[in-house]
Amino acid sequence: MATRADIEAWLVGQEPGEPLPQGLPVVRGIPVNGHRFLLPFNVEGVGPLGGQLWLDDDNIALIVELPWRVSDFGDEIRLFEVLMELNKGYGFGRFALEDNGTILYIVDQPTGRPDREYFDYFGIIFLLGLAQTVISRAAQRLQGLRGQGPF
Amino acid sequence: MPIRTFQDLQRALRECRDVGLVVVQGEANLVAQVRGRAVFVDWGRINRHAITLTCPAIVRRAADLSPQQWAEIMRKALQLSAQYRWIKAFFERPPEAAVVIIQAQLMLPTEEGNDPMNRLAFLCDNTNLCKVVSEMGNFLTQI
Asked: Minimal Cα–Cα distance from B16 to chain A, Å?
């Protein structure tokens, strides 16, 4: 477990107050504002994406805007059903919709106190890994709607 | 207070502001009344890494729904899921019905010492459970 300040130091490549655990992969975040970062990562079958990592006072969230919009798909019902089937199939994390039709993948969890036991470095690796796995699976599933959409 | 046992979970739920009745339904399941709605709570069976809270939020007779109405119901649930924290939406379609289900999962430590998910075990406590329950109650009032 780590404080929020230590996690933020790690994300920008600085030395946290406490030594980093062994075997921790390198993750780089670009500070956006406050406790929010842009986290570039790659998804198999999709390509490079940018997730927003929010380190809010009582919540940590990775929010990924996907390169697909509802209007790209001819069959809305099937699209929503596929997103919901994925929601049912994978623990934590979810697909959701912005009012403007952008499709999001969000994985979030309540945290501890920012200045004490806030979250864990490996927890962020978990959020990223889950996003990579599930978004890749979604791309495969949505390929099935080919001919009605952008693929 | 950390939640480490199913009994801890029962106590924690009863202390949450948004919870009324709590009815135990076996060794790992209970039903909690959240703002008047029945929320099914699962201790590590649906997902061994999670306390899973599930609520059938919208239930309709399939015969009463046009495809367009079904699409609008799903769209609204997916939109609310972007606005509220920790809550996902999916559906079940048993014969003759269409059900939108909302669900939240709070990480639950396992018995295995070297399970990497257990690094987040400290987050499984009363405060976070009540926050998730409260968010689910808010979601339910909007759907």
From this structure: 16
